[in-house]
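Cross-check.
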Amino acid sequence: MYYTMTLKGLWANMSYSDEELDYLETIIDHSIDFNYIYSQLKQLVGKYGISDRTTGEYFETPQFTYMRFCMGSMNNTKREDRLDHIKNLYYLISNNKINAPTPYVLNFGTGYLGLASCALYTAHDDLLSLSAGDHIAYMMTAASSGLGSHIMTRSIKDPVRGGTIAHQGRLPYYKSLESATGANRQNGRGGACNTYYSVLDPEVLDIIGLRNPTSIDEKRIPDLDYTVSYNRFFAERAAANEDWMLISYLHAPDLWQAMYSPDKNLFSELYYKYLNDSTVPKKIVKARDIAFKFLKEAPQTGRAYTFDSYEANTHTPFLDKIYSSNLCTEIFVPTAPFEKGVQELYSEDSNGEIGLCNLMAIVLGRIKDDAEYAMAAYYCLLVIDEAIHSMDYPFKSLEVSAKGRMSAGVGLMNLAYDMANK
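Predicted model, tokenized:
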């Protein structure tokens, strides 16, 4: 199988000797396929296995897919330890004791190392930064990554160039993001992006309904996901059915930045400062109206997410601001805008930063004992470490920040079953 797939150019030449391949042949167990439920087999063959999507020809069974993943992810470990690592990792992954993200299973062991599970970025209120954001979305989708997008820009009808242009608001940027994300394919599927917006935004009530099929066409962008960012101050006002101020980033940039601060007093002080300043344009609505409209979206569209910016910036090991999470709202890592535009993405000396999502998971309920749990945790981190160091990075700035941060996340799956079972 190894030589057949390498000759076809479907597997990478990973420099395994005949003796090593013979040993691995004794490890792989194709009978495990019969223990999987139909949906898992369908997922493994259709989504993760290598195939020719133009002819419908499949080249891997699930166990070959898992073995390729193990051989690829352990390929750069010490040669004297490599086979033991592959044996242990194969045991864990094939028996559903750990779980790996799509790019790892799909690309490890191939000639393509687009391994980023998710990327998240922030774009600021200028053309260069916004264009860099679209370029990130386009390139990271092509690199097999899901996206978390945070666009911090002025609102509709705000002045541009001294008032010679009236700003069109966020929706045109969201449509551009939708196009950039959908332009490239990932193993037969389109890209995916979750964009984060603030309860301070004057367009918040329109943004909440962008996925809703009952919204008018001009206010529908259904191929993105959306997450509303709020803080404790907003939650308290919604609970008390009090008024809430909507204000553009253009007129209150420090208030918008304070939304992502662990200092509650700073936000409230700035909020009342702008609320009492009659020279600053603003709109007053009921905080509860925003909350209720959002809560209705979840049952109507099945896709409505929340981001507590106060908690994200309080329970964090980072000193830098956390503006958003990723596609699946599961990680909190810093991002910074690329103020100099697209060229800054390719620079080693960049002030911007793309957050990278490096994940594995332990499947609780399938772990036998503490020793096996420790082994599972070790190999999850070992795979992530290898991914960070061997990944094909679309941007030099991303490689520098990813290897500098070495951010890793090991999740716990099947927790409810495990607790019930005990």
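Residues 158 and 189 are 37 Å apart (CA to CA). The chain is about 45% helix and 15% strand. Passed to J.P. for a second look.
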